[in-house]
Specification:
The protein is α/β, with parallel strands linked by helices. It is 36% helix and 20% strand.
């Protein structure tokens, strides 16, 4: 089905913007004149608008602003506070420290479950660039429609590659099953940062870049943790009663001191590949801006589009 034909019902949607990374790979571009390193999501890497604000605007095309949460790290507070001054404290999940993407996402899902336990959830990184945001978010609407029809699925957004990139994760789709009508494909397996030779082969056989954007129903996403990382889930479940209380910060601070860093892609998604689908997306000008050369390329593409618009 064409995404333009979808009439989205946004009332049962929520989004979690992942903004807790340290952004060290881009430090040479985001370090201030006084030597302070600012994580890239809080910087205007392209143009005059910080990446976090760009992400908020992008997500607002598909999810009501009052249902958008932000997962952050306490040691970044001086950077995110000015940008998120108008956001309700209930929508700010401030981690005591960075322990990787798995704890960040689990904490956010459990917090969201306190107020909206049955919503469909968009997970969206905050440090990406997208040339055609409207086109991307129409595809996200398709992912929401898919999980509403098939609640057992989690739908990943896979970007059609234009080069054999070795620094991205890749998704290898399986043949279509005919179950969905939103052009999604089952996931066969993941390839993490392949060699150049392997990346060329993946590209030639129709594999996709893993954008780390995904949509799933909240109970389904929590189920992924229960199956893939039961010890982490149990650890968070023990302190769950403190959510929304005066003791949350202190209790979760103690929990995070004991946690080992863990990665959602490697430790959750890769083990759950059979319960995932991928939606191929092309021609939206996506980049994760993880390296200076990608920033340079995005700037060049942005300039080309501006010249075309002015012509």
């Amino acid at each position: 089905m064409n995404p333009d034909q979808i009439i989205p019902d946004k009332n049962n949607r929520a989004a979690i913007i992942l903004a807790g990374g340290d952004g060290t790979r881009l430090a040479q571009l985001t370090r201030r004149a006084d030597g302070v390193h600012v994580p890239k999501q809080f910087c205007a890497v392209l143009g005059k608008v910080p990446l976090l604000d760009q992400t908020r605007a992008r997500v607002s095309l598909s999810v009501p602003s009052e249902r958008v949460s932000f997962v952050l790290n306490k040691n970044h507070e001086r950077f995110f506070s000015p940008l998120l001054a108008g956001v309700s404290p209930e929508n700010l999940i401030i981690q005591p420290q960075n322990r990787g993407t798995a704890p960040a996402i689990l904490y956010s899902l459990l917090r969201l479950a306190e107020s909206a336990p049955r919503v469909s959830v968009l997970l969206m990184p905050s440090d990406h660039h997208v040339g055609d945001e409207a086109a991307l978010m129409k595809c996200v609407d398709m992912a929401f429609a898919e999980v509403e029809e098939h609640p057992q699925l989690t739908v990943l957004v896979g970007i059609a590659p234009d080069e054999p990139e070795t620094a991205y994760g890749w998704i290898e789709p399986a043949p279509p099953t005919g179950m969905g009508r939103w052009k999604t494909l089952p996931v066969r397996r993941f390839w993490e940062k392949p060699s150049r030779e392997v990346a060329r082969e993946l590209m030639a056989t129709g594999c996709l870049w893993n954008s780390f954007m995904m949509v799933g129903q909240l109970p389904t996403l929590l189920g992924l943790f229960i199956l893939a990382m039961p010890e982490l889930y149990v650890s968070f479940s023990k302190v769950r009663p403190s959510l929304g209380t005066l003791f949350e910060e202190k209790i979760f601070g103690r929990l995070y001191q004991r946690l080992r860093p863990s990665d959602f892609s490697r430790q959750v998604l890769e083990s759950a590949a059979r319960s995932l689908s991928v939606l191929p997306v092309s021609n939206v000008g996506w980049s994760d801006l993880g390296e200076p050369r990608r920033v340079a390329r995005a700037l060049a593409n942005l300039g080309a589009r501006q010249r075309e618009a002015a012509a």
